[in-house]
Amino acid sequence: MSDSRFVSRDTLRAEFSAAMSAMYREEVPAYGTLIELVEDVNAATLDGDPGLADSLAATGSLDRISEERHGAIRLGTGRELAMMRRVFAVMGMVPVGYYDLSVAGVPVHSTAFRALSKTDLDRNPFRVFTSLLRRDLIADEALRAEVDAILAARDIFTEKARELVERAEAQGGLSPGDGTLFVREVLETFRWHDRAVVDAETYERLHRAHRLIADIVSFRGPHINHLTPRTLDIDAVQRLMPERGIVPKAVIEGPPARHCPILLRQTSFKALEEPVALQGPGEESWQTGSHTARFGEIEQRGIALTPKGSALYDSLLAETRARVTPAGDGSNAREYAEILQEVFCAFPDSWDEIRKGGLGYFIYSRTQAGDAAPPSPDEDLESLIAAGLVRADPIVYEDFLPVSAAGIFQSNLGDGPVGILEGGASRATFENELGTGVRDAFAYYGEIESASIERCLRQPALYE
Ligand code: OOG
Ligand code: NI
Questions:
Q1: Among 210, 227, 253, 250, residue whose Cα is nearest residue 406
Q2: Which of 247, 289, 403, 445 has the fewest CB atoms within 10 Å of its CB?
Q3: 323 lies in a domain?
Q4: Which Pfam families does UniProt cross-reference here (predicted)?
């Protein structure tokens, strides 16, 4: 249904991602340093590991690596979330997954907006981890009402951005000129504002309830709080960060270093303490304060796990954390890493075992030999692989991990919350406010896998 009058959604997403990266580089110079480090490490990793380059090329994802990043925002209201969904839809991004962070004492729940099809992801995989404040978890009722009033008074979108979203919906796309304008206008929503919309006393009260509440409520918009490039060797980047003047978080979140990377490993550098202007007692009077919210993060992506593989991952992570909980100050970082490594020995570490154990998703393709002698549809996939006619490459995990996300939030939030109620997941409320259901990530990986098997077995011979 592409219409040649319109700029493609993939192009808009790529342009938006690039514009956001340029803006964040200017706002947070350490992010630029991190990008350079990641580019150096990725180039060196590919040089030293031709097999990896080959596998990435076979799944069509080699070219996207250096373009790849995710960002994160935190929204205040369901209205903002619903509008954000429409904005992202113009760029071909849909909500995938529901993440309940309340289990970690963080008063938000989240989804990730991203492209859905493999082709679109390969064109540009930009994703945005998008959180919504759980106002129902604010313990103090008066504060809750105040939060509602402050949030009700703001509009985080420009008028032009709203107009262009409506136009895109009505026409089914945007002209190239409108597309350029759209990227510029939407970027405004993600911009940092150093002037708060609250006074110092209100900021303090919000902050005391939870630092995240102060971050979400005190400003004109949901400034992008980090942007994360994808690295092919997170241990190398973690090790090299201090050499470039960046102090990393104590432990890498997610699985340990492995021969076969699974899911997602992430680390970050601490949020900056930035000067902000808080409203003073008189009109147009300002008081200087400081706010800590924006940071940098890197990630290494591995294979997407099946429900069975994910369950094994969850249980091994829980087992690790029952033995040692990583301390925020890094004092037991080494012990944590050792136990993590030890416990994860129970997770098979060869592609063959992962595949045969039904733990991960793979994309199957014919080798040259397979193309020359195409298999018949009833042939057994494993025998074809053994005969060198078909190859299996891991499908990269495109989503997030709730325990890791909680760790990233917490490393930047410091002391425990005081004004937050305990609450369970609230997916139905989230989807209701979003205005649609969130997609199931497993179904997406499963479809890519089955389609690739279908192609392997049924595609006619390819003749030169
Ligand atoms: C989002 C933290 C989660 C990730 O990569 O898991 C996240 C936030 O701090 O707003 O970005
Ligand atoms: Ni992140």
A1: 253
A2: 247
A3: no
A4: HGLS
| Cβ atoms of residues 107 and 137 within 8 Å | yes
CA of 61 to the centre of ligand 1 (A): 23
What is the Å distance from ligand 2's center to 214 Cα?
19
Confidence of residue 463 (pLDDT cuts 50, 70, 90): very low
Supply the pLDDT for residue 464.
Answer: 39
Look at ligand 1, atom 1, and give the residue with the nearest C-alpha. 72
C-alpha to C-alpha distance for 111 and 134, rounded to whole angstroms: 13
Count the domains in the chain. Answer: 1
pLDDT classification of 25: cutoffs 50, 70, 90: very high
Q: What is the CATH number of the domain that holds 124?
A: 3.10.180.80
Q: Which of 2-6, 72-76, 423-427 has the highest mean pLDDT?
A: 72-76
Asked if 333 and 250 count as a contact pair (C-beta separation under 8 A), the reply is yes
pTM of the predicted structure, to 2 decimals: 0.93
Q: What DSSP string runs through 46-58?
A: HHH-HHHHHHHHH
| Structural domain contains residue 356 | no
Find the Cα–Cα–Cα–Cα dihedral 91, 97, 98, 104, rounded to 10°.
Answer: -110
Tell me the C-alpha distance between 228 and 73, whole Å: 12
Contact status, residue 208 vs residue 276, Cβ threshold 8 Å:
no
Highest mean pLDDT: which range of 10-14, 38-42, 285-289: 10-14
Residue 400 lies in a domain: yes
> Greater confidence, 165 or 4?
165
ipTM for the complex shown: 0.99
Q: Nearest ligand, CA of residue 404?
A: 1
Three-state DSSP at 170 gives helix
**Helices 200-209 & 141-152 angle (0-180, nearest 10):** 120
Separation CA 394–CA 116 (nearest Å): 17
Q: What is the pLDDT of residues 180-222, one digit of tens each?
A: 999 999 999 999 999 999 999 999 999 999 999 999 999 999 9
In a domain, 3, yes or no: no
Token pair of 288 as six digits? 């200087």
Among 110, 224, 226, 228, which is best to mutate for testing ligand 1, by the most ligand atoms less than 8 A from CB?
Answer: 226
Assign 318 to helix, strand or coil. helix
Identify the domain containing residue 134 by its residue range.
9-304+361-458
- Which pLDDT score, from 0 to 100, does residue 416 have? 57
Mean pLDDT of 102-130: 92
